[in-house]
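1st attempt posting a full record on here, be nice pls
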Amino acid sequence: MTVNGEGGFGQAVASHNARVKVQSNMMEGDVRDVVFTLFSEEAHWSIKDMVRKSNRDEKEIRAVLESIAKYAKGGEMRGKWSLLEEYK
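the predicted structure (as tokens):
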């Protein structure tokens, strides 16, 4: 059995890592769809409310939000996320 990727253990690890990456990308796509659905219902969301409404993990939602939304640090929408203009 070799460990250098030519077969055996190395190949099994590489295969497993590839499957995990595909599953992760599929899950991220699912979470992204959920987040867009939530934003179609309301323009501004707190993470807490998104987690409660979607039954998804906060880390998953936050990862999606960081790429498609902006966080309000002040003003009347403080603590809430809204979609970036290019996603509206």
